[in-house]
Specification:
4 helices, mainly alpha, 116 residues
Length: 116
């Protein structure tokens, strides 16, 4: 008998590994709305960029290739090392769009365990 987790039907279990980092990133983005154009926004940039790469890695593991471009784009846009200058109002809209991308990606990216 295998030690891998299985559903009642004997199929491999699908786990939403990107859900926690996706929800955390959405919370960070919404908190970051109050910090746009302050020095503290650099911390928001670091957190969002790192969480975007974590979610992108889970998308690679799940073979959900269509999630990689938007998540990598978020990581590049929020990159604190080489910041891209974006006006405040555009940042506000981008924060909301990125939060939606993170939540939807977190819900839809499912990594099958025991399928390798």
């Amino acid at each position: 008998m295998s030690d891998r987790p299985r559903a009642r039907t004997g199929e491999p279990v699908a786990r939403r590994l990107a859900l926690a980092p996706g929800l955390l990133a959405a919370i960070v983005l919404l908190v970051g709305l109050a910090l746009i154009e302050t020095d503290a926004f650099t911390v928001i940039r670091y957190a969002v960029a790192i969480l975007a790469l974590i979610c992108a890695w889970f998308a690679v593991q799940a073979r959900h290739w269509w999630w990689i471009p938007p998540l990598v784009a978020i990581a590049v846009l929020w990159n604190p090392v080489l910041p891209i200058p974006v006006p405040g109002l555009l940042w506000t809209g981008a924060q909301y769009v990125a939060a939606i991308v993170f939540v939807v990606a977190g819900v839809l990216i499912k990594v099958r365990t025991g399928d390798r």
